[in-house]
Amino acid sequence: MRGWDKAGVFVLALVPLAILAWRGATGGFSANPIEDITHFTGDWALRFLLITLAVTPLRRLTGSNRLIRYRRMLGLFAFFYALLHFLTWLVVDQFFDWNEIVKDIAKRPFITVGFTAFALLIPLAATSNNRMVQKLGPRWRTLHKLVYAIATLGVLHFLWLVKADVREPVIYAVLLITLLVLRLPWRRTSHSAAPGS
User: Looking at the 3D structure of the chain, how many domains does it have?
Assistant: First the structure.
């Protein structure tokens, strides 16, 4: 049953990619398909980051430990959509024009923070397996606390990208703050709890 549960979550996490492929095949993009793809993949990278961060609060609020089984998979899907987002910009938008890429990263704050968030995601994705958990020991947990900074940078990236209507990035910001605040009481009352509880 556990295998089927994880397979179901895996398939659901691929639904956004299927939607993107369907839109591409049926002419569902606007006059600027590159921008559509960039925004779509970026949105889902941020959503999966927030879903991943929601696992621990939901587990504690519901008392169910089943959710923890999906956390690493959800985190890897956050990286997957962030990678698609980055590659769309790197390959399709910039055509590997390294001079322009470096200028964009250095001069445009929303790209600077977005690139930083993606770079920080790489070591988390690379160590999201049992072998690395065992190899790194307590350092693994310390490393993966970077997810809080990454999610914050992701929200900031979105907020600085939007020039007029900031309602959507503000919603993401409120969700992120809520998820972080939900952890505080538990941290104060769980000093004696075992790591990973």
Answer: 1
